[in-house]
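User: My instructor asked us to take a sequence, write out its structure as tokens, and then describe one feature of it. I'm not sure where to start. Here is the sequence I was given:
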Amino acid sequence: MEAANLSVATAGVALALGPETCSSSPSGILSSTPGGAVLQGWEPPFSVFTVLVVTLLVLLIAATFLWNLLILVTILRVRAFHRVPHNLVASTAVSDVLVAALVMPLSLVSELSAGRRWLLGRSLCHVWISFDVLCCTASIWNVAAIALDRYWTITRHLQYTLRTRRRASALMIALTWGLSALIALAPLLFGWGEVYDARLQRCQVSQEPSYAVFSTCGAFYLPLGVVLFVYWKIYKAAKFRFGRRRRAVLPLQATTQVKGAPDEAEMVFTAHCRATVAFQASGDSWREQKEKRAAMMVGILIGVFVLCWIPFFLMELISPLCACSLPPIWKSIFLWLGYSNSFFNPLIYTAFNKNYKNAFKSLFNKQR
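Assistant: Let's start with the prediction itself. The structure tokens for your sequence are:
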């Protein structure tokens, strides 16, 4: 009886709202038919889980933008950072700031639309996809450039002078943005597939199989090969150098036992020699710690980069070739996992570089 009264009351409210109001309710869950009947089963337009996910994504966008902007402001204001490798870090921060400012917000708008449709028109679709591919590709290649700079610093520290380092970093930055622009604009310049489907209201990267191979290889698989090879070489070089230093220190300790002088003099010589060895070991350990920290930073940077992007680029390569498609929810998860790499990059730089931490402290103290 109570259920019947509740149904009648609901119908009365729906009829009082009128047919136009009912038909415009979200997803058509509560709407009127031509005969005036009411379809029941009203649900809120957004579930609690959806609101939570959207909140987390908004926080991710804001944190990515602010953190990378802080890196840029610090590099611009601190004169000590106006050199290599901080220009490579600045290039990465620029690409990540653009991802947070231009790419991620429009992607979130697309996620919130019904059926993930693109409702902002063809022109804005082309602009969004172009910036998406440009900035994400530049961010990935900047990681490869940082790894290459670290590799040459460790393995060729005598030949890799400051002047050479400046030229190499400038060339890597120019190649990074030039290649990224070529990959991003190829569909527009050469008619390589279509990114906007007016009938389905869909905006996505061109699904032309040949472009899929070109873009994924140029934007991810090629830099992935570079960074994996570079880190393997860094690991081998660091292991060789540390082992050679230990072998160079050990014979000094053995020489303390070959003297045939009196006991008293031998004790003095032994103490002096051990102090010398301890000093050399401490000097080497400081250098070793610095190189180990740099190698660890590059390793974590590469590891996070691979974990964030490899699911998305596997999907982007396989889907056009096999004419198959993943469920939309997995596409969104892989896409936003890739975007999150722009958030992790500045965290990794600052975690392994005390100069950035000190610069942040001085910057905030000056503001006060």
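For the description part of your assignment, you could build on this observation: The CA atoms of residues 64 and 273 lie 53 Å apart. Try explaining in your own words what that tells you about the chain.
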